[in-house]
Structures are given as structure tokens and as C-alpha cells.
Amino acid sequence: MRRLSFLFVAALLSVTAPAQTLQQWRDSLAVLNRLISNDPTSTDLRLRKAAVNIELSQWEYAVEEYGRVLELDAKNLSALYFRAYAYNQLRQYDMARADYEHFLSIMPRHFDAQLGLAMTKRNLGRKTETSDDLNRLVEMFPDSALAYAARAGFEQEQEQYDAALYDWEEAIRLQPQRLEFQVSRYSVLWALKRYDEARRLADTLVKQGVPLSALERLQPPARKRRR
Fold it and tell me: Structure pTM?
């Protein structure tokens, strides 16, 4: 889930700075704190500060800062979206769910918020709702490889291997260059005891640079066989 949703901080908040060291992030935070003290009603400055809090894994501070933004602008989508992320990091899943749902009431067709809500429900143990949300995500975004991959990952987790295999193959059809999709398909083939297909796929993946040892770790111990 983190991989699917949270490389978007810079894009959503228009942060264009290159990768920074830990000390540079702390220096940025100090500068932003000084600026905010001079302009406490600036939502832009507060959003940038919260983004730095996220970079520093200061989840409580990020939640607090996004809350201040929402006090100034109750429909601020950046604050709702990333506060939900911060709540998830704090394992406050009910709060994250509320923020995603508020976000989606304003922008219903936002892919990442839809996905974030589904994964939050997964974390809450709401399997049926998660499945329904992921089905809806695929219906809304039928050309999205990530939608199929998200559903496949959940199905695989639930040991629904036939469904997972179909979705991994759809994800691969849409983005054939994504080796991680192929690796996931490999693990499902092993779970389905389709060993010959799995070995042929392994040969292809090894030629593409995936270590054989990494693939072998995906095999259930009782099913490992000598190549």
C-alpha cells in the first residue's frame, strides 16, 4: 500500500526540491516554523511543514499540522489525503477511513484515495468491504494495472489464487515491464501447484535479472523442488 500511494507528496504539494539528507529536512522544518510564526494562516506553509514532518516520520506532528490546515480550509484535499496516510502510519485506521471518505465525498473518482480507503478497510479487518472497494476500483479504472495489482494482492492474501492469477495477468497485460507483477504471478503459480509454468516463468525472470534465490523464497517450503 505504501508503494502505491505515498510517492505523491511532492507532486500533490508542488514540492520540487531534490532528495535531501535528514539534517537538510530538519533545517527545512526550522525555516518553515519561522515562516509560519510570521504567517500562521498560510495553508501553503502549513502543508509544506506537514510534508516535511512526513519525510521525518513525525506522524503525530503531521496529523496536527494537517488538522490546522483543515481548521482554515475544511475541504483542503491535500490535508485530508495525507492526514489519512499519517493516521494509517499511526494505526489509527478509523480516523484514516473518515478522512478518505471525506476526501472522496468531494472528489469521488480519485484513484489513490479509493485505493487508500480499500487498504484502510483491509487493515480494519473488513474483508467484504475491502473486496467490494477493490472491485469498484477495477470497474472505475479498467485500464489501470495498479488497480488489478491491488486486487490481486488482496486476493492472494485471502488465498483466492485463481482470482489472483487472473488479476496479476491483467496487470501484466497492461504493464508488461513491471517485474514485480511477474514475480507475484510466479508465487501464485506455485500456490496453484502449476510448477512447470512457474519454472518456465522463473527462467524468464532470472534472465531479466531477478535472483533465483529470491524466487525460491516465495515457494512454500513443502512445495520446493529441485530445478
Answer: 0.83
